[in-house]
Every structure is written in C-alpha cells, then in structure tokens.
Write a sequence for this structure.
C-alpha cells in the first residue's frame, strides 16, 4: 500500500493538462455491451476505469489500446455472446459497475447484477435504477445480494419514466436501457450533468435519436443496432476545479488546460465571489496569485448547482479565507469524513447536521492523515500543499480511482510531493 508525502509551502507555477472525465468514461465504456466495435478516446488511466474494463471482460467485451504507449485510446470489441452475470467480486469495487444493468437488460432481456460497492459516503441506494427498469417492463427480484432483472415480454418496452428525485446513475442506466427498447421512452426529472450529456452525445453519434440533451426531459427512440464510432470523452471538470483550488490555496500562478468552461460555471462563480483572480480563455484558465480570500456560504446541489464532488475541496480552501464559512451538503448524508482529518492538520471545523461551519484564517501544520474516499483524499492533498512541514496521506488508492497521476502533475509545477510504498508490518 502506498502513501503520498507532501512538504508544504511551495508556490506552484507552470501548466497542468486535465485528463478525460472518469464519470463520463464509465457509462460510455458500458455501451460496449451493445455494439461489436467501439473506440473511445481521452479515457483517463484510473483504477475505476480498470475495474470497469475487468468487469466488461468478464461479460465478453475485450479491449486493446490503440497506442500501447498511450492508454487514453481504447478499442472495445465483443462477439455475439455477452454474459448476463455481473459478479460480486467485480461489481463490489465500484458503484459505477452497476451501470451494466441497463445495457445487459436491453441487449439480453435478462441481467443478474450484484449490488455495488464504492466510496463510503452514504447509502446511495439503487432503488431509482430498479424503478426505471420496472417502468420499461422488467420484473425485478433481489436475491442473495444480486438484482435479478428480466424483461417480462422478452424485450424492454419504451415508457414514460418520471424520477421522484434526480439521480445521475439512474438516469444513465435508464438511457442505456431505452436504446433497444421497443418504441419511445420519455425520462422526466433526468439528471443534467455534463457526463449524462456526454453519454447522450455518444449515443447520438452511434445513430440513436435523442432529444432534450442537457435538459431535465430526455426523449429516446429505440433502435435495433448501433453504429461503430470513435468517440472523444469530455475533460474532467472535477479535476479541473481541484487544480484551480490547488493554485488558490498555495497563492500561485498556474495555467490549467483542457477545460470545458461551460461545465464549471457554478464553481467559477464561487471562486469569483471569494476574490480569486483568474482569466478564463478557450479551454483553459490561468489563476493568478491572489490575496486573502472571502468566506463562503453555499450548498451542494444537482447540476448546474455547486457539485458535491467539490465539497471537500472547497471546505479545505475555506479554512484559509478571511472569515467564517458555511457549506451545506445536500446530496450525500455521510460526506464529511474528511473534516476530522482536516482538523488534525489545524482546521477549525464543526459539523451540525448537513452543515460544516468553517472558521477561517487557519494555519495548517503537517501530520499523518487518512483518506476515507475519493474526494476526501484530494482535499488532504490540497491541505498538505498549504501546510507547514510534512503531511503523509495514507490509503491513496482512493485517490487513484479518480485522479490520473495527480502527484506527477503537481510535482511538475513545483510541489514537493512524492509517493512512498509503506513497509508491511
């Protein structure tokens, strides 16, 4: 097991290139179940991507790299036979593995998918996924930790799906299940996230008629087959925002490239209100050295609101603001596990229900801390960059699920950061 060691206090300078979006890549990878040949470009080399590829391989989808020296372009191919069984040992590693449910069900008329695992940030039940499959004509049973889904009429039937609450994963599963369903499907209260839009745009390039992309109402006409395509995944908006905070928290001048500015508008509004100086250009942002930042009062919400995946990072930055801040977490009920670790470094944060009260003007001092989930892990990296002395972040396998070579990217810009393999006890 590895740790990341950071000697804080260094100013950063230079350019960082953002990788492809993890959360966009995973559902698009799942589309390979439905077509014999799919090339996906700009895929990040991450643990979660590897987990999805391993799961797809177990189902009968095989992958190869277009350029063996660059794992960002993947070719996925399958034979006519796709297994309907997504086993526990593969699905438990990552919640997004459950995204194979819709494709398997719409292709084979049957799916046996283990209940998923993932970060320990809350219950995140799969009830909305099951709700959508039932609306499309599936009979669902839960047996021994598996979702057993069967198309009642042998094939899914298009229908109207009105989600009682917004869910990104359930929206994506519903979209993919509707592809081979007979007739038309209308999804209301759909998630609007850029990653959902990217899935739709990929399907449109494959010959599916989809209207309402980017809105809360999505219309899909079922088809019988998908075209072979080569598709370029969008850049990772959460990685981009995390690097912007890295520049802000170290009071540095830094250029971040390969950004879709439209995807991070709510975040940039908060940065502007805090007083961060930056210049947005086409597909890039230059952050300038700024003085003391203003405190914040914000809440996380579904897109286009402030993303829950940036909550841990913005809380960390708020520790250095010129006043007290409040952040409300409205998406997940257990996403404040990074706060005790930040307090170990010198933060003064209290939790009241779903609110974090952050006292500003903190002085962080390096310490040994433990990552508890993906976004918590990067908040500790950011804290270590600003802390005096040395910070050791343990359990960085969480970090490797969603940030491609973050230590190398930061090191190239002047951060004193490196990985260390821990000796076995």
């Amino acid at each position: 097991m590895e740790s990341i060691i950071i000697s804080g206090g260094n100013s950063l300078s230079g350019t960082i290139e953002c990788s492809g979006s993890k959360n966009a890549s995973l559902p698009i990878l799942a589309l390979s179940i439905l077509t014999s040949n799919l090339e996906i470009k700009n895929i990040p080399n991450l643990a979660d991507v590897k987990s999805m590829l391993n799961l797809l391989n177990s189902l009968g989808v095989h992958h190869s790299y277009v350029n063996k020296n660059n794992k960002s372009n993947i070719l996925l191919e399958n034979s006519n036979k796709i297994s309907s069984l997504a086993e526990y040992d593969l699905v438990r590693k990552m919640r997004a593995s459950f995204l194979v449910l819709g494709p398997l069900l719409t292709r084979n008329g049957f799916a046996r998918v283990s209940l998923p695992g993932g970060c320990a940030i809350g219950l995140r039940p799969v009830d909305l996924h099951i709700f959508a499959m039932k609306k499309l004509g599936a009979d669902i049973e839960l047996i021994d930790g598996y979702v057993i889904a069967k198309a009642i009429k042998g094939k899914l039937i298009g229908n109207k799906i009105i989600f009682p609450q917004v869910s990104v994963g359930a929206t994506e599963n519903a979209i993919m299940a509707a592809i081979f369903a007979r007739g038309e499907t209308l999804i209301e209260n759909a998630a609007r996230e850029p990653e959902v839009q990217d899935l739709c745009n990929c399907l449109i390039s494959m010959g599916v008629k989809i209207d309402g992309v980017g809105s809360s109402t999505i219309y899909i006409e079922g088809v019988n087959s998908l075209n072979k395509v080569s598709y370029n995944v969008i850049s990772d908006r959460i990685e981009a925002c995390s690097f912007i905070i890295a520049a802000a928290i170290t009071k540095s001048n830094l250029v971040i490239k390969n950004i879709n500015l439209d995807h991070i508008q709510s975040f940039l509004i908060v940065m502007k209100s805090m007083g961060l100086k930056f210049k947005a250009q086409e597909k890039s942002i230059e952050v300038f050295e700024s003085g003391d930042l203003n405190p914040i009062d914000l809440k996380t919400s579904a897109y286009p609101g402030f993303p829950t995946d940036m909550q841990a990072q913005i809380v960390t930055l708020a520790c250095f603001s010129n006043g007290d801040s409040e952040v409300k977490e409205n998406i997940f009920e257990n996403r404040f596990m990074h706060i005790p670790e930040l307090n170990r470094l010198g933060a003064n944060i209290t939790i009241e229900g779903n609110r974090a009260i952050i006292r500003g003007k903190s002085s962080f001092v390096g310490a040994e801390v433990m990552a508890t989930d993906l976004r918590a892990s990067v908040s500790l990296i950011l804290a270590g960059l600003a802390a005096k002395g040395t910070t050791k972040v343990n359990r960085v396998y969480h970090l490797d699920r969603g940030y491609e070579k973050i230590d190398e990217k930061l090191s190239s810009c002047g951060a004193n950061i490196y990985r260390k393999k821990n000796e076995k006890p």
About this structure: The chain has two domains: 2-19+235-421, 22-232. The first helix runs from residue 22 to 30. The CA atoms of residues 122 and 334 lie 5 Å apart.
